[in-house]
Write a structure and sequence with these properties.
By secondary structure, this protein is α+β, with helices and mostly antiparallel strands. About 60% of the residues lie in helices and about 10% in strands.
Length: about 475
Amino acid sequence: MRSTFAGLEVGLRALRAHQLGLSVTGHNIANANARGYSRQRVSLVATTPYTAPAFNRPASPGQIGTGVEVSDIRRVRDEFIEMQLRMESQTTGQWQALLDGYEQIEMIFNEPSDTGITTSLTEFWKSWQQLSLTPADMAARAVVRQTGALLADSIRHTYTQLHRYREEIDGAIGVKVNHINYLSQQIADLNKQIVAVAVSGQHPNDLLDARDLLVQELSEIANIQAVTDEKLQMHISISGSSLVQGSHVSKLALKEESEGYSVIWAGTEVKAIFNGGELKGLFQLRDDILRDGYMAELNRFAKALIEEVNEIHRGGYGYDPAAENDSDRYPRGVDFFIGEATDGKWAQDIALSSALLDEDGLKYIAAGKGDAGAEAPGNGDNAKAIAVLLQETKNSDLNGSLPDFLASLVASLGVDSQEAQRMVANQTVLMEHLARRQEAVSGVSLDEEISNLIRFQHAYNAAARLITTLDESLSTVIERMGIVGR
């Protein structure tokens, strides 16, 4: 026979269940604006009814309910959206790194402007044109030397700034590698805590949220693959190599090489491969875009400028009005630019030749063309030839003239920058869409939580009222029954 006090137990269970519902609802409301928080839901189920089926069961019309209990507290999460967010974060991180790099490169080239290489090249060309008209004018020769020095300085400064930016990217790579090691250690520590809770049969909802937030941050840096096992441990790899395996972490390290840092797995010589994320963008920016791209193209430009100008300049004649004989009056065979480059870095070493920088160096500027001793060396034909070279002559190494090559280089930089801007804009729209989908599933709706709050509150009050009613009934049985005839 069922206990007289069974109804009190039903009421007690209801109080406990709905009190827990109130606590979870309060937790959701408290974390409504917390980043990475997933709303939690209480699952209420009926407890085992009385009695269990058997041949010798007590006579009764059927099973009687024994109340309610909380089966579990789970967070509301869509794993598919999580996976999409991680994948798109990798692409977004890569293109954002490239966009930041292109913006910096555009600032270094500073084109079009009054101080860019294009303007310096134009002024250099104008000075040779003017000298071709007045080859004996020392002021015109001084302008040629000055504009030549400014052009060399502009090229050298631009190349130096690009090289310095490569070094800064190396530093950024080191920072990202250290951050990966930090995040992976945090994830491994959370894995250990999550397993300890999961084996007890509970759901570590807040710990899972914290881990997902770290994994999302990690996915922006590198192309990671994340898999969760039956113990709720997350195993993470980068391009197939394990980074986090349960509570174990494989650290990354930097290896210094001639062209900058490479990333290896600590304790080995195996290079880590990055196919996405900010690190992919940084490596692509450092090696493909800067070293093999704009820096190499600037070297090609400087090499062509030095060699072509020097070739024409060596064949021409200078002019020294103070010389006593014709052989000294028309010096020749002097280079205009320094043409020896260190490791092929022409743009890094370009400068005026030392002869032109001497106090009487203006006499070596070869404006004339012809045979020594004749009137021809006093003309401006050689200056005119250099002016034509600087503006019109096609160079086989550059597939065009010097200004055309420079304009093409600047234009390609603008196109590449626009492509990066477009990709970042597209990825931003996609990430916002996925974030809204995630918020619709996992986000806290205050309207819904207030509704739940009222629902649990009324259920709690009703359970309390049930206990009060049962208490009054029992009081009647205990205190008033059986007193007739006393």
